Every structure is written in C-alpha cells, then in structure tokens.
Amino acid sequence: MEMEMEMEKLPFYSSEIQSNERKGANKIQTCYNVMGAFIGVALLTLPYALAKGGWLSLSFLLLIAAMSLYTGILLKRCMQRYTQAKSYEDIVGYAFGKKGMIISCILANLEIYLISTSLLVVEGETLHKLYPHFHIKLFGLIFRGKQLFIIATALIISPTMFLNNMGFVSYVTAIGLCASVSIPVSLLGVGFSVADRGSTFYQQQGRLLSIGGIPTSISLFLACFGGHAIVPSTFVCMKAKDEYTKVLIISFIINTVIYMATAITGYVMYGNPTMLEITVNLPSRNISSKVATCASLIIPISKYALCITPIANAIDNILPLKNKINRPTHVGYLIRTLLLTSTTIMACVFPYFEFLMASIGSVTVAGISLLVPCCCYLRIYGPHHDKMVELIFIAGIIVFSIVTGFVGTYFSIHNLIKTM
After folding, report:
1. Taking the chain (420 residues) in consecutive chunks of 10 residues, what is each chunk's mean pLDDT?
2. Which of 222, 372, 384, 386 is 20 to 30 Å apart from 151, CA to CA?
3. Residue ranges of the Amino acid transporter transmembrane domain (predicted)?
4. Would you tell me which CATH number, out of the four given (3.90.420.10, 2.30.40.10, 1.20.1740.10, 3.40.30.10), belongs to the domain 2-319+338-419?
5. What are the boundaries of each domain within the chain?
C-alpha cells in the first residue's frame, strides 16, 4: 500500500487506465491495440536493413521478434505477481523502487520523443520526393526542400493536438494501422506490374551476408519492436487476462509476417541499392506505388498524436499547479503545442532518419523492450525461480541487449559522421 501511494506521487504516474479496466477489451481489440503499438514507420526501413546486412540478417529479425515476444510475456508475469500495477512504470517501480521507475520513464519518453521526431522526418522526405521543386516565397524569402514539408506536416498534425478524446485518437490510429498493412501489399503490386527493375520476377543482385552492415540491420530491426511500454496497459484493460499470452503470440506473429514480407519483397525488387525508405525506390507513376506512398504519408499523421500523449501527460503531472483536477485545458494544449514545435525544430535541424531509427533501436528499444523486462522479472521472481533453461535464455537476452546497445550506438554515430 505504501509503495502504491508513493508511485502515485511520482510525476510520471498516470491512473488513466483505471476507468478502461472496468470496461475491458476483448481478445480482438487487445490484439489490435498490441499490433498498432508496435507497427509504424520502421516498417519502411526493413528492405534497407536487409540490404545492409544481407539475406542471413533475416535470422536476427526472427531472433529479435522471439526475444521481444518473450519479454512481453515476462512483463505479463510481473503484472500477475504485482496486481496493483497499472503501467510499465509501476512494474519497474515495484522491482527497483522510485529511482528505477524514474529512469525507466525517462528512457521511455526519450524513445517516444525520437519516434515522434522520426514521424515528421519521414513525412518530409516522402513529400520532398514527390515534389522536389516545390517552394514558397514569403516576405522575400524562399522556403523549399525537406524542411518546408516538415513544417507543413506539423501544421497538418496540429489540430490533433487539441483532441482530448483518446477514443477518437484511437480511430485515427486505426487508419494508420491499415496503412501499415497496405505497404507490403502495395510492394507486391508494384513487383507484379513492372517488367524489369523492381519486378519480383527480375531479382536484383543481393548479398548473402555483410558483416559491416549487421549492426545497422540489428538496430533497424529492433526499432520495429519498440512498444513494450504499453504491454502492461493492454493487459490491465483486457477482460480475459488468462488469454493474454495467446493474444501476444498472435499479434507478434502477424506483425513479424508483415515485417518479413516487406523486407523480402523490397530487397528482391531493388537489391543492394535499396534506399532507406522503400517508397523512394518505387516508380512514381505506378498505381500500387501511389498507394504505398499515400500509406507512408498517412502513418506519421495518424500516429503522432497518440505517440506524443504520454510525454504531454508526464509534463502535465509535474507542473506545480495546486488544483490539477480543475486545471485549465489550455495548459494541456500549450504543452502539446510546445512538444510539436520542439520535435518540428529537431526534425528540421537534424533530418537524419537512419540515425534516428537506429538510435531508437539500439538505445531505447534494447533497454525498454529487452533489458528492463528481464531485469524486472529476475528481481521479482529471482528467489523463487528454478527453471535453469529459462534463466539462461533471459541472461542471453540481457547480454544481447547490452552488446547491441553499445555497438549499435557506436555505428549509428559513426555513420552519422560519415553522412555529415
């Protein structure tokens, strides 16, 4: 009881899920929520990740998928042991106390902030590819290029910052999930409709393995599985909690199939010259290409509001206002507007999508999705755990997350310096 009261005083604590817990979500709704949390713009980078590491690097995608699924199950077990937990931060707080909880919140919010920035970057790059010569003259100044489209995207997104009804935001997010699923289908459409380069029947030259590209591949693969912070929330909101493991397995299988289909199709079509965003490779006049491009434009706009909400809530909770219940709504609007402005500035000044996605994978996802769940599970269950094989597997995940975190960060910075 004391621990629960202490966590409620923390700035990052949120009790929004309590009302949803009473209503409950069925298996299909929970499956949709889990899938939607994990799938996003990282999907566009998978053919490039495969091109960097070669065909054998697909084994790392499957390995990361298996480890991510397992750490999701570990989080569910922690929720079963500590029944008062309502969120990811609650589990970390129960395992490691207030300091551990704050550190995990900082990492989780850093991940969300980088993802939000990457959404603006990928939108700007896609629009710039479609309209490379577009420019605006304003007050004697000429605005053009990727930065112009990033600012335009921020203006389009800005109305969603004033949506307090998360149910409506969820409908917008559902559109983004449908758009994500349409990308591999559109790639196949392009592959079957062209005769030479870009055809699934005209396989481009590819490599079996590229050791130097493996760190980048792993970092980009990891970025596809950054959604564990919502696993406890979806578990709490589910009616039949004993079915949650099955829901996780189904969700991860579907997402992994989508990831594999996108990676393999894109690499078969374009080979080693595959660009960072597969939509850049697609022919502009093909109907399926237009569908894939439109889908890649919809994803950032549909996911931004939902991505930025946890950070906005965290900042809102630490503001030194006495009456938080009757706090003016314009305070929350101001916070969200400032967050949108800051991510827009960062996207304009630092428009390096590959570095952002690799950093998300190697730093935040390796920590939030792999390392922390294992450490929490060992902390909570360690004295009562007697399955040696499982302990060895958990130890392997911990070592993998630490190594990929350091190596991936080094190569991300190294590649960024080369690019600049």
Report:
1. 40 42 71 82 90 94 96 93 84 89 83 85 84 77 80 89 62 76 85 67 74 91 87 85 92 94 89 84 81 85 79 75 55 86 89 74 86 93 76 94 88 73
2. 222
3. 28-413
4. 1.20.1740.10
5. 2-319+338-419
